[in-house]
Amino acid sequence: MAMNLWQGENAFTERPNKIITIDGAAQRKVVGRRSLGEWRPEARGHDALATILGQNSIRDQRLLPLRHGRMAASPWTYYRGAAAVMAADLASAPNTGITVQLCGDAHVLNFGLWNTPERNLAFDLRDFDETLPGPFEWDVKRFLASLVILARANGVEAHAKDAVAAGYAGYRDWIATYSTWPEIDIWYDSVSTEQLLDYATSDDDHKLDKLIEKRAEKRSSRGAFKKLTSVVDGAQRITEDPPYRTHALNDHLAELETIVAQYQASVPDHISSLWSRFDLVDAVQQVVGVGSVGMRVFLTLSEERRTSDPIFLQVKQAGPSVYEQFLSPSVYDNHGSRVIHGQRMIQSATDMFVGWTSISSDGDTGAPMDFYVRQFRDGKVIPKGEMIAPRLSQFATACGHVLARAHARSGDVQAIHDYLGSSSKAGDAFAEFAFAYADQNDRDHAQLAKAIEDGEVDAVEGWPGR
């Protein structure tokens, strides 16, 4: 059977989604399915600690000890921050050449819920900082390895094998299903809250749906306004929580004003018109995530002029995808644009406020800094490891479904289906890799922890909600 393969850099000159056709089943001769399970540490070609530290040059140097401390907290937090390490490791082995729009960081907690523009909660991928066209199996490997690492971190390692099998089955079965659907039906498909609950709850378990509903109601700009602001000198201001949320914008205030102004040029006219009805009233620098710590992130508060209704936007620095040095460079000249275009390709429905911008850097290189913009929260419910650990297999099945839909939207689903086949070869190999790589992640985490203990790497402890 034939497949569509994203062409290289030159093929994107006119349209970034131009495709060529190759035979998916024939790719088994390029990378045999059993070889998907191989992990050879001696062939990785890089030092994990050097790769982590090599990402620090474009980050806010004041926040690097916090990033290192978060990553060193556990093998799981290390994995969350070590997408660059795994990118290099994945690139050290031959790939299938069956190309999709990679999420790039498809670990199990990067799936979550938020409101579509129609105000319906949908379950989908939620992080696209590393998105880039690349081999489909790289997303699958990162997803399945994350299940093993999360299971170990939450004391349910005995269930890791079942969770990996369930996650792969969710992916494979929906790839098979989508291979029978018309393309337009794939693009309209989404995973609703009800479908997620069908996966993740049993007949006598009614806690998860109530928790989702309660959290989603609070995860909005109006909910954030109540929780994150206070009146200071007669004006509404975002409340500080140093060092995670501060008004320390003396070095960035002019940059932020430029970012917000230029952002409007990246959104459609009707959104720009809507946005013109709001005034920017406050902004803080924010620390988010694990791998993102040190990237410049701002939280802005704007109020609608007529009713003072609030809206929060998150403005986040975007650097090159960690995969770009191993694949073709992004066809977009702005990495914020790369992130947003990848998000729109992968997600079933995307926040209507997303956009991008860039500014000239005052640093030594003078290179521009790119940013992307999105609503802050907007119904977003991010799962917690301890919440999903007791039902990890069920949750993994739902994640496999979502990942399959993302790949079916952005690649040739028939080719992936033909490559995977109906036997257990691919599934067994992916499982073998997941456990082998989880062991490697343990060793890499220990390397970082020792470097911190020996004083070679600066680190401080700290986590929101501490």
From TrEMBL:
It comes from the Bacteria. Pfam families: DUF2252 (PF10009). This is DUF2252 domain-containing protein. It comes from Gordonia spumicola.
